[in-house]
Amino acid sequence: MLSVFLNWIYMLLTLFCMGFSFSQFSIKFLHYRLKRMDSILFAGFAVATCYAQIFSLFYRVNVEANIAMILLCLASIAVWHRQMLFFLKEAWQNSSALRKILTGVLLITWCYFTSRGYMVPDSDLYHAQSIRWIEEYGVVKGLGNLHCRFAYNSALFALSALYSMKFLLGQSLHAVNGLMAFVLSAGLLDLGKCFRRKKMLLSDFARVSAVYYLTLIWDEIVAPSSDYAVMIVLFFIVVKWLDCLENPSAENEIAPYSLLCVMGVYALTLKLTAGLILILVLKPACHLLRKKRWGEIFCCLAMGLLMAIPWIVRTVIISGWLLYPFPALDLFSFDWKMTNVGDIILDAALIKTWAKTATQIGLFAPLRQWFPHWFAELSAAEKLIILGDLVSCVLFMGIAAWTLLKKRKEKYDVLLVLLTMFCSYLYWQLNAPMFRYGYTHALLLVTLTAGYLILDRKICMPVYAFLILYGVYKLWIGADCIRSTATEDYYVMQKDYGSYELNASQLDGVVIYTTNYLSGYDPFPACDASVLQKIELRGDSLKDGFRLK
């Protein structure tokens, strides 16, 4: 726990410097300043991730990357220290005593849960090894041939490697998800304003969804899974987007929407399936094109490309494909390319089938076969969410038809958000509906649709009562979870990855450890035992990469 806390202090300092530098860039080119601390820190997450990926293209992401980052942060402090101090002073003064106390409680709580808990199997299957490859080598050609899951290439792993502190502590920390959850939850304290204003806004319904999600993952946040990071970022985007729509002073500002679309590109690099959040780009794109603000258009496109290109380049180097696992985009013929298209299609099909709990039915079972089986396996709460989503899909189509037929242009902005959630939910539901992959889509569709319908009705009092009762219930559940894990000895060092017995094998004279399933972080490098017969080194060492025989 202590190691997580110190790691977070370092992360918060560097993320603030990078996020504030981004805000200064936004002021100069978009004439817009990031006003909230959570916005600054999430901008810092995006910038730090982009930096880590770019660094990985040239060298390992280890102590050298941290030294260079510290120097950049010191340079930003030297240039903008007065503005930084003013921002911090303003943020402190504008925060009530109660909010400061609650933020401190949240910090300690998330630090506790990040130090221990349930490590999802994927972390010991390939997350840990992915992070270690970045720590040791940066990026390696044809790494996907060693383990196909490496080719999924979430940008989160580069960020995790940057802040793992293996060189300092002798143990690779995995605390990025926990800090993201803390920053989001601190911003969600704005939900308390609905009691003071005696009115709920649509953004409050989005916050309720985010709070519900965070209370589901606190005992799993120790895992460096990209699923948690991308859901947190998507919640942040939607909440902030609705905040902007509800803020009269920001009525004529388009820059915040443009910046949130850049965050949408960031979410896509965390997990490709988040890409439909970019439907939101229709609002700033139409506005900027109509006003012919070419400078801002170029600036936003440049930021989006800068966010995406390092991730795309890493994917090409690791797999030989522009996007993995999409073999239709066949643009390259590198010698390290994962050339077995059948295996790529099978890999994608297996993930979808596993998500549908349809392994007993078959890889390509139609909807009418797998959906009843999948639905039956859900918990009671998950069944309620899905039933609510199915009803919300019908309601959304009615809302959209009514709004368009009546030409209620004042509702178009909210309709665009509902459309984004509708499309995101359908894509998740029809492809890989494991709840861990799509909680944001499933929760936001039902809550925002319900919020849209009851917002102007005088029936919000039951919602207030539900929020209070549910909050008390979750506090009791959280306290019980803390009680049950309090005896675990993770108060100094964070819970490490799993440890497994692997067999040492030889690949062209280099030691590779083999396993039939999980490998953890150490020993390294590790792969499935069946893979070694199919691949070879491209040179004399691991840094030269792998290719199929």
Briefly summarize what is shown:
With 549 residues, the protein is mostly helical. Among the domains are: 2-333, no CATH class; 503-548, no CATH class.
Provide key terms for this protein:
21 helices, 64% helix, mainly alpha, 5 strands, two-stranded antiparallel ribbon, three-stranded mixed beta sheet, 549 residues, globular
Strand content: under 5%
Low-confidence stretches: none
SSE series: HHHHHHHHHHHHHHHHHHHHHEEEEE
Strand order of the largest sheet: 1-2-3
If you had to describe this structure to a student in words, what would you say it looks like?
The protein has helices spanning 2-30, 37-56, 63-93, 97-114, 121-137, 143-146, 155-162, 166-169, 176-187, 193-197, 202-217, 226-246, 255-270, 282-291, 294-319, 341-355, 367-376, 380-405, 412-431, 435-454, 461-485, and strands at 503-507, 510-515, 526-528, 535-537, 546-548. Helix 1 (2-30) crosses helix 2 (37-56), helix 2 (37-56) packs antiparallel against helix 9 (176-187) and helix 4 (97-114) packs antiparallel against helix 9. The protein has a three-stranded mixed beta sheet with strand order 1-2-3, with no helix packed on it. The chain is mostly helical and 549 residues long.
Question: What's the SSE blueprint?
Answer:
Blueprint lengths: L1 H29 L6 H20 L6 H31 L3 H18 L6 H17 L5 H4 L8 H8 L3 H4 L6 H12 L5 H5 L4 H16 L8 H21 L8 H16 L11 H10 L2 H26 L21 H15 L11 H10 L3 H26 L6 H20 L3 H20 L6 H25 L17 E5 L2 E6 L10 E3 L6 E3 L8 E3 L1
Parallel strand pairs: 2-3
Antiparallel strand pairs: 1-2, 4-5
Helix pairs in contact: 1-2, 1-3, 2-3, 2-7, 2-9, 2-15, 4-9, 5-7, 9-12, 11-12, 11-20, 12-13, 12-20, 13-15, 18-19, 18-20, 19-20
